[in-house]
Amino acid sequence: MLDENEFLSPYGLRSLSRHHQEHPLVLDFDGRSCRLDYEPGESRTGLFGGNSNWRGPIWFPLNFLAIESLRHLHDFFGDDLMVEMPTGSGRKANLNQVSAELERRLLSLFLLDANGRRPAHGPNPRFQKDPVWRDSLLFYEYFHGETGEGLGASHQTGWTALAGALVAHRRARAASKPQS
Question: Quick one: which of 38, 51, 76, 103 has the fewest CB in 10 Å?
Fold first, then answer.
């Protein structure tokens, strides 16, 4: 899960491992060959109307549940359980630190990056450069697993509104830290 060549992207957890980009899952069944490929953006198939892709993009519900689960596991195991974050880096983190890093990556979809661009707005010049629109945040349905570009419905204030819960948690955590 914490391998950047598999599920971990710069913007959260992908819904399918990037490993399947080069190694698709193929199932031969009843004379038919079914194939599951990594598709980080819009679906390339007409299944489910063609606009539903759980084969690679970043989805807020999946990430939120992973973050919450890691927090609860940290409550149980404490700082004794350390994992490599990201895999192959040699850096160890407890599960609370892993959840905070996943939270940071997910929220970075909406923040200005080093180039002054919001990953969620993709290449859209109106939302990237126009001063009237550039600070308007759209809660997309899901996000490209590599670029972070928002995809699907652009006013998905259902599950993508979980960003608000993540911000509230970060604020509460910062407020509870002892002042030096």
Answer: 76
pTM of the predicted protein model: 0.90
Written as six digits, the tokens of 32 are 């038919």
Q: Which spans in the chain are helix H?
A: 19-22, 60-77, 95-107, 125-129, 162-176
Judge whether 42 and 49 are in contact, CB under 8 Å: no
pLDDT 10s digits, 28-48: 989 999 888 888 888 777 666
Contact 26, 33 (CB under 8 A): yes
**One-character DSSP codes across 134-165:** TTPPP--SEE-TTT--EES-S--TTGGGHHHH
For residue range 69-99, list pLDDT tens digits in order: 999 999 999 999 999 999 999 999 999 999 9
Residues 40 and 14: their CA atoms lie apart, in Å, by 8
Q: Which residues pair with 108 in a beta bridge?
A: none
First to last CA, the chain: 35
Per-residue tokens: 132:
């009237």
The CA distance from 162 to 2, in Å, is 21
- With vertex at residue 94, the alpha carbon angle to CA 92 and CA 95, rounded to the nearest 5 degrees, is 125
Nearest partner of 107 among 29, 164, 179, judged by Cα = 164
Of 35, 36, 41, 37, whose CA–CA distance to 57 is shortest?
A: 41
